Amino acid sequence: MLRSGLFSAALLLHTVTGISGFTVTTDTKDVRVKENQGADLKCSYSGDFGANPRVEWKFKNVKGSQAYVVFDGKPTEPYRDRAVVYGSNLRLSKMTAKDNGVYDCEVSGNGQFGEVRVTVTVLVPPAVPVCRIPSSVTTGRLATLTCRDNVGSPSPKYKWYRNDVPLPMDPHKISGFQNFSYSLNPDKGELMFSKITKMDSGDYYCEAFNDAGPPQRCRSMKMDVRDVNTGGIVAGVIVALLLLALLGFGIWYANKKGYLPRKSESKPKPNVVYQPQSSYAEEEDGDFKQKSSFLV
């Protein structure tokens, strides 16, 4: 009974698949074209969609933004001067790195829908990469050297050189590099030293490359790795202490000489006692004379 049910389900699935013959295909699944040249994007479909199916082309760039290239049988405004529709196919001219992405051919008709995808890569050689290399690093510290090119398409990969010798991906597997401790990221262009040593000193440069043209390299720059300057640190501390001592002496001397303003001291107010004036005034000869009299 179970076997009979499985057979019936398989037969039904086969019948539905056989009826559904709506197919959309392409023979240009991956297109690679040089910069400023043109390319043909092919799209074909089965006759099940009817005599006049609706064909549209959509584009999604590498950042995920999506837009119509062909809508209602006509190129949209951004592509009007460089897109041509012939049948269900699309021809683009003067292509640049902005055209990198996927193009979907969508066909609809007779109540059915189908689509096929074409991936386009515009080939652009790399430009001279921007390298950031520290000129001086202290031993035992983390040091990261970076290299980046935003022009090349497809996205370039990167190689690092030290004293004109290419650095291997895994230094521990190559004779002469076992004592080096670094990590390389060829996709991001990073050369990282987790604990840099004096033997890592040298002239460094980076090279960006892809299959669109010749590689490009940045200018070589020297990175000097030095030990911690203990003597300089001690001398700096001593100088700082001497300056503090000199400052303290200067304040003391200025205060002693009265060059600094003193705080106003509060003086006690004198006690004023009112004494009535005597009715007698002392004359120069010592005699007293009555200055005023009262009549009773």
TrEMBL record:
GO terms (BP aspect): cell adhesion; establishment of endothelial intestinal barrier; intestinal absorption; regulation of membrane permeability
Chain residue ranges for the region called Disordered: 262-296
Entry keyword set: Cell junction, Cell membrane, Disulfide bond, Glycoprotein, Immunoglobulin domain, Membrane, Phosphoprotein, Repeat, Signal, Tight junction, Transmembrane, Transmembrane helix
Residue intervals passing through the bilayer: 233-254
Residue ranges annotated for the Ig-like domain, each copy included: 20-121, 126-222
GO cellular component terms, A-Z: bicellular tight junction; plasma membrane
Membrane-topology annotation of the record: Single-pass type I membrane protein
Domain of life: Eukaryota
A Pfam short name: Ig_3
InterPro entries: F11R, Ig-like_dom, Ig-like_dom_sf, Ig-like_fold, Ig_I-set, Ig_sub, Ig_sub2
Signal peptide as annotated in the record: 1-21
The keyword Transmembrane helix is annotated on this UniProt entry: yes
Record carries keyword Repeat: yes
Cell location: Cell junction, Tight junction; Cell membrane
Assembly, per entry: Interacts with the ninth PDZ domain of MPDZ. Interacts with the first PDZ domain of PARD3. The association between PARD3 and PARD6B probably disrupts this interaction. Interacts with ITGAL (via I-domain). Interacts with CD151.
Family label: Belongs to the immunoglobulin superfamily.
Protein name according to UniProt: Junctional adhesion molecule A
